[in-house]
């Protein structure tokens, strides 16, 4: 990224999680697992699950309203809506279009980003370019998921990991020296099979067979993603921090993708950033894919851990396999 663009930063954040909570003990009554296994292997204790009649755009709406309120602007002021999700309400129209309508952001261009857990960071980078160039003025970027709808509740290797939630940020021009300083995005399609929903697309349209074979659920090679994640987070963080003209000791707070505490601990070690500077809330939400970073970001902004002048690092990885790290001055 070059800095010829005008500076763009976050002027408001919000989040929303459905009220129903599913604990590890609840899961131990559903599949062959235990609270002890889930806690020690992942750090997760509970997650929020949407009711049957609640879709991703409903969660997105809750987070968007709270982000607009914190930014002190109305939906009519937004000219760009981006939703990052792998669990859209339907194939099309995009979830951003449904959110635009529900929110009343009638002036806004709206589209989705489908890059798994990395989607929110990609959305931020896209906004940095589109607002930075002067083409747009105020954008809403939302990461929203109802992963419970694509979870195989008979597969203990995945069903203990995921949860439902949404997080949002309002982006706008900010004063010189602030906002997005640098980012590093990437993808390695050689690992495309490691994390996917095989059925329902043009490769394998929905059929009685695809349903019987459970092909519409999320599948994952956990250990492969784990190894990739630590390397991708570390390397892209090094690149983004150096592009920003900073060193790791300048980073005040890290918002990592909330997939596994062991991944976060390994990344902290590789980057030599104290573990305490990594925001962690996956104990209460599990892995919420594209929602995980804006959800944790909103929590850290609201409880005062993120303050003006702080250097904030957002770092994620996910389906693709993709990665994305972004450095901001708050
Ligand atoms: O958001 C991006 C996508 N996701 C991720 O980032 C996830 C990345 N990967 C991970 O976090 C970890 O790989 C997992 C948490 C998914 C799995 O942890 P692991 O330490 O890699 O475990 P494993 O898959 O190597 O399985 C170890 C053992 C196996 O048993 P055996 O073969 O050693 O007898 C599994 O069958 O743990 C067993 N196992 C379970 N046992 C109890 C797998 N899932 C469970 C479970 N409860 N829920």
Outline the secondary-structure elements.
Elements: E1 8-16, E2 21-23, H1 24-28, H2 35-42, E3 46-48, H3 56-71, E4 80-84, H4 95-103, E5 109-113, H5 119-132, E6 139-146, H6 156-159, E7 164-173, E8 179-187, E9 195-196, H7 208-212, E10 219-220, H8 222-243, E11 253-256, H9 261-271, H10 282-285, H11 292-302, E12 311-318, E13 322-329
Parallel strand pairs: 4-5, 4-6, 11-12
Antiparallel strand pairs: 1-7, 2-3, 6-7, 8-13, 9-10, 12-13
Helix pairs in contact: 3-4, 8-9
Oxa(dethia)-CoA binds next to helix 2, helix 6 and helix 8.
Question: How would you characterize the overall build of this protein?
Answer:
- The chain is of the alpha/beta class and 330 residues long.
- The chain has two domains: 8-177, Thiolase/Chalcone synthase (Peroxisomal Thiolase, Chain A, domain 1); 180-329, Peroxisomal Thiolase, Chain A, domain 1 (3-Layer(aba) Sandwich).
- Helices cover 33% and strands 23% of the residues.
- The strands form four sheets. A five-stranded mixed sheet has the order 1-7-6-4-5, with helices on both faces. The chain has a four-stranded mixed sheet with strand order 8-13-12-11, with helices on both faces.
- It is globular.
* Mean pLDDT reading: 97
Total strands: 13
- How far from one another are the termini? 18 Å
Per CATH, what is the topology of the largest domain? Peroxisomal Thiolase, Chain A, domain 1
The largest β sheet comes out as: 5 strands, mixed
Assign an overall shape: globular
Radius of gyration: 19 Å
> Could you say how many structural domains there are in total?
2
Number of helices: 11
Find the structural class using helix and strand composition. Answer: alpha/beta
Spatial strand order of the main sheet: 1-7-6-4-5
How big a fraction of the residues is strand? 15-25%
SSE order = EEHHEHEHEHEHEEEHEHEHHHEE
């Amino acid at each position: 990224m070059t800095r010829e663009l005008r500076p763009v930063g976050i002027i408001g954040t919000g989040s929303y999680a459905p009220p129903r909570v599913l604990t590890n003990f609840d899961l131990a009554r559903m599949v062959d697992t235990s609270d002890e296994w889930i806690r020690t292997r992942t750090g997760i204790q509970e997650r929020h699950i949407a009711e049957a009649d609640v879709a991703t755009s409903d969660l997105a709406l809750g987070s968007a309203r709270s982000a607009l309120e914190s930014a002190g602007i109305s939906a009519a002021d937004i000219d760009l809506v981006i939703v990052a999700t792998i669990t859209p309400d339907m194939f099309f129209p995009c979830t951003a279009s449904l959110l635009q309508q529900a929110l009343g952001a009638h002036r806004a261009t709206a589209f989705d980003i489908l890059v798994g857990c990395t989607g929110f960071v990609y959305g931020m980078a896209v906004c940095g370019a589109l607002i930075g160039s002067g083409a747009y003025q105020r954008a809403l970027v939302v990461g929203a998921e109802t992963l419970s709808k694509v979870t195989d509740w008979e597969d203990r290797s995945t069903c203990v990991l995921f949860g439902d939630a949404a997080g949002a940020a309002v982006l706008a021009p900010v004063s010189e020296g602030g906002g997005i300083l640098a980012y590093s995005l990437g993808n390695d399609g050689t690992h495309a099979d490691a994390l996917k929903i095989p059925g329902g697309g043009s490769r394998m349209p929905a059929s009685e067979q695809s349903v019987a074979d459970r092909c519409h659920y999320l599948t994952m090679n956990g250990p492969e993603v784990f190894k990739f994640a630590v390397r991708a987070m570390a390397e892209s963080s090094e690149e983004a921090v150096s592009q920003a003209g900073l060193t790791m000791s300048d980073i005040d707070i890290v918002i990592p993708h909330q997939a596994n505490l062991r991944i976060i601990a390994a990344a902290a070690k590789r980057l030599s950033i104290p573990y305490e500077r990594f925001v962690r809330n996956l104990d209460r939400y599990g892995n919420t894919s594209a929602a995980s970073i804006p959800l944790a970001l909103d929590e850290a902004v609201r409880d005062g851990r993120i303050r003006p002048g702080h250097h904030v690092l957002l770092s994620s990885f996910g389906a693709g396999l993709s990665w994305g790290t972004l450095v901001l001055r708050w």
